[in-house]
Specification:
There is one protein chain. Helix 1 packs across helix 8 and helix 5 packs parallel to helix 6. This protein has a seven-stranded parallel β-sheet with strand order 3-2-1-4-5-6-12, sandwiched between helices. A five-stranded mixed β-sheet has the order 8-9-7-10-11. The chain has nine helices and twelve strands. It has 265 residues and is an alpha/beta fold. 36% of the residues lie in helices and 24% in strands.
């Protein structure tokens, strides 16, 4: 039985991760972490997540051994817990969005000491979409304009979403574009005719939308759209748990959801 710790256990994602770990007969929840000063510290995580008593109290430090820690917190918290995991040799699965390049590189460096998987989206469908979008962009060529539209709930703090940025990154890699040069974020005013290599990125924040992503390929006379819609946060949770089971069997290094799903890039 795999021992799993959860960082950010009282957040929207963390609570569902804890709940589904408790339901999984192959897993055992051994630690639930939250930031210093959190109002739920020392409470049973099961009473907070609605799972009943678990005898696992919410703490601000990792005081027990775990095989894997799953993290959906904040960029700063993810980097801090990655340092703890590296020191203790605990595998890390991180779904935190908004990581800067410097923060990601820090975690990548730490992965020399632990197996690690960082993904902006743990959904199986979205990770298939990453590769499909890249393949389609390559096959369709420069006659097709590319736009990426993402919609999330009003409470999301980062924009555009990590998933949308990953879609842009995969498309750029497949077509020779540059993320920092060819991607624009919204349009306003007299923008002029659309440049050939441009990728438009648009972020919508509305109500309680969990996560919708669409890539639009348009030419003169036809249009193709790939859309993924998440109906429940459990979609991401199940992907993260699948990743945790994968990571638990691996040696130190940086892995991806493509590795988990055996997707050939």
């Amino acid at each position: 039985m795999l021992k799993i710790a959860v960082n950010g256990a009282c957040g929207r994602m963390g609570a569902r991760i804890a709940a589904l770990i408790i339901e999984d007969p192959q897993l055992k929840l051994v630690a639930a972490l939250e930031r210093h000063g959190h109002s739920f510290l020392d409470k049973d995580v099961g009473t907070v997540t609605g799972c009943g008593e678990t005898h696992v109290k919410i703490t601000s430090t990792l005081n027990t051994h775990a095989d894997v820690l799953i993290d959906f917190s904040s960029p700063e918290s993810t980097v801090a817990i990655a340092e703890v995991c590296a020191m203790k040799g605990i595998g890390l699965v991180a779904g935190t969005t908004g990581l800067s390049t410097q923060q990601f590189e820090k975690i990548k460096h730490l992965s020399r000491q632990m197996p690690c998987l960082v993904s902006p989206n743990m959904s199986v469908g979205v990770n298939v979409m990453f590769n499909l979008a890249a393949q389609m962009a390559q096959m369709l060529g420069k006659d097709f304009d590319i736009e990426i539209i993402e919609t999330h709930h009003r409470f999301k703090k980062d924009s555009p979403s990590g998933t949308a940025l990953k879609l842009a990154e995969k498309i750029c890699d497949a077509t020779g574009r540059k993320l920092d040069k060819d991607v624009i974020y919204g349009r306003h005013g007299i923008t002029g005719e659309r440049p050939e290599n441009q990728i438009g990125m648009h972020a919508v924040r509305s109500g309680d939308v969990i996560g919708d992503h669409t890539v639009v390929f348009g030419s003169l006379g036809e249009r193709i759209e790939i859309t993924h819609k998440a109906h429940t946060r459990d979609t991401f949770v199940r992907g993260a748990i699948r990743a945790a089971k994968f990571i638990a069997q691996k040696t130190p290094g940086m892995y991806s959801m493509s590795d988990v799903l055996s997707i050939q890039s």
